[in-house]
Amino acid sequence: MLSTTSPPRRAAAAPRRAPRKAPSPPAAVLALARLGDAVALIDRPSRQLAWTSDAWRALLPQAAQVRDLAALELHLAGLGAALDTPCDDGAPRRVELGDAQWSAELVPLDDAQWLLRLADRREQSRALQRQLDDREQLLFTSRVFSVGEMATTLAHELNQPIGATANLLRGLRSRLARRKAGLDAEEGAALERAIEQVMFAARVITRIREFTHSHQPRHGKVDLAALLRASASLLDWDLRRSRARLQLELPDDAVLVRGDEVMLQQVLVNLMRNALDAMRSDPPAKPQLKLTLAVKGQEAVVEVCDNGCGLGDDAAAKLFVPFASSKPNGMGIGLSICRSFVELHQGRLWFTRNADRGATFHVGLPLLTPSSSTATATSAS
């Protein structure tokens, strides 16, 4: 006989509970996150991070997945103590975390949820430094324009007294020559040198005036060997004052380059004066200024060598930076202008430290080739 007993029924499965969703941040917090702020919601009762913004995870990539505040304190030291401090008025409170590396702000939203807003002090310092650099660059540009305007004004104002001085010296030379005793050799040489110096100053001022309007030099055939001898003769009085011995190592034949003679002479004279200043600031036992000219490949290289105080690392780093001078009364534009003049001649200007004492400045200029010599003659005609 078959049993009519029905099989036992299975117990009904218990209904599944939906996972608890993390609390959604308020609209004001989401607005901060959209603005790029590094913010996090803290659940105080559970001591857990309930939500973090993208900027938070980017700022703390090593703690992007950390939710427990105890683990987070490894990166933000002092966070637990800040949360335990009561906030009666509910106002935002600034706290310092991680040995003052982080700038943080705690904002109680309610009794359970607190907002933590985080910023890296180092990034703030970098942003401030960028702002200061931009401001300094703006001031520098303004000063460059001012220097250009001053150079034009000075050149215009100085031309008249320089021209008058040259005329007076020529008149004095003629009057002395008409004396019964005539003009002796020493007096004649002194007057010729004075007129030469005045006319050199006039040419320099004229070139500076033109330089403020146009950066194109007047190209012509220039003998560097003769130019070095002439430049050195302009500084004979300065050499005697410094008690420096001048040593010239120049080839017998002409070394021709294509360029502006007055502009190149300005470069050479400025480099020699800098060398003499270096020997005066820290005088060696035997001051010596050495001028060398050599042909290396397709380039003529001038070397101005001294045994003065040399250049430290800080001075070398700012050597060609305008308005940065190691001299107490220097304007810091001499070497910057020299480099500009040399580069306008497709040349290069650099320096090296001497093995024993002092420094050497090198000027490399392309040699005059037959093709460029023909082009110079054509442009001159």
Q: How would you characterize the overall build of this protein?
A:
This protein has 381 residues and is α+β, with helices and mostly antiparallel strands. The chain is 46% helix and 20% strand. Among the domains are: 27-122, PAS domain (Beta-Lactamase, 2-Layer Sandwich); 217-381, Heat Shock Protein 90 (2-Layer Sandwich), CATH 3.30.565.10. It has twelve helices and twelve strands. Strand 11 and strand 12 (359-366) form a beta hairpin. The relative contact order is 0.07. Mean pLDDT is 78; it is low at 328-332 and 377-381.
Salient structural properties:
381 residues; alpha+beta; Beta-Lactamase; Heat Shock Protein 90; 5-stranded mixed sheet; 12 helices
Quick recap:
Among the domains are: 27-122, PAS domain (Beta-Lactamase, 2-Layer Sandwich); 217-381, Histidine kinase-like ATPase, C-terminal domain (Heat Shock Protein 90, 2-Layer Sandwich). 46% of the residues lie in helices and 20% in strands.
Distance between the termini: 138 Å
Question: What would you give as the CATH superfamily of the domain at 217-381?
Answer: Histidine kinase-like ATPase, C-terminal domain
CATH topology of the domain at 217-381: Heat Shock Protein 90
* Helix/strand class: alpha+beta
Quaternary structure: single chain
H/E series: HEEHHHEEEHHEHHEEHEEHHEEH
User: What fraction, in percent, of the residue positions are helical?
Assistant: 40-55%
Q: What percentage of amino acids are in beta strands?
A: 15-25%
Radius of gyration: 39 Å
Provide the CATH architecture of the domain at 217-381.
2-Layer Sandwich
CATH uppermost class of the domain at 217-381: Alpha Beta
Instruction: Give the overall pLDDT as a whole number.
Output: 78
Biggest beta sheet attributes = 5 strands, antiparallel
Side by side, the strands of the main sheet go 2-1-5-4-3
How many individual β-strands? 12
